[in-house]
Amino acid sequence: MRKIIIGLCAVAALTAGCDFEQDPVAVQSADPGKSAGKSGGSSKTKTFPIKLTAKRAHASKSVLSDGGALSCVKVTVTNQTKKQLEVNPLYFSITDTKNTKHDSSSALGEYEGQIDTTSLAPHEKATGLVCAKGSFRPKVVAMTNPLLSEAARAQVAS
Fold it and tell me: Entry's InterPro entries (predicted)?
């Protein structure tokens, strides 16, 4: 009986965080007046719970830098929800024009001005740099939540 209860608890713990029918997060446009999707002539703009904007940027290297190439974007995260929003530089990734995903943790601490680890109240915003090692052209930046599921995506403006 004890083995059955332990087994059921293990299965419940493993499947508790799974969301089997999770919809992909829509990519927010780099141009605030346009939708990122391919909608015909619709001028209706979609509101996102987490507004994320990104623009290509250059970072000043820190004393911890190993001198390697960095590709960076300046991001602004705006909390448009009614709850606190956790922001952390480890929650970001950058996808390049060849659709290769680059993790921001690869360059953590190697540049000045990275986005702060903070908690945003409703309607607050945070701005800072997100970088990844390597020389590539950023196309999309993505942000996850503390449970590491994607929360927001945005096209990177030039």
Answer: DUF4352 (IPR029051), Immunoprotect_excell_Ig-like (IPR029050)
pLDDT tens sequence across 97-136: 999 999 999 999 999 999 999 999 999 999 999 999 999 9
Hey, what are 145's tokens? 């939540």
Sign of CA dihedral 134, 78, 25, 54: negative
Q: Where are the domains of the chain?
A: 25-35+46-157
Backbone phi, then psi, for 115, in 5-degree steps? -60, 140
The whole-angstrom separation of Cα 25 and Cα 27 is: 6
Instruction: Say if CB 132 and CB 107 are below 8 A apart.
Output: yes
Which residues partner with 76 through β-bridges?
A: 53, 127
- Distance, CA of 107 to CA of 111 (rounded, Å): 8
Q: What is the largest CA-CA distance in the chain?
A: 63
- What CATH class has 25-35+46-157? mainly beta
Q: What is the pTM of this model?
A: 0.75
Helices (H), the chain: 2-15
Q: Please, which residues have CB within 8 angstroms of residue 35's CB and are 6 or more apart in sequence?
A: 29, 42, 44, 45, 46
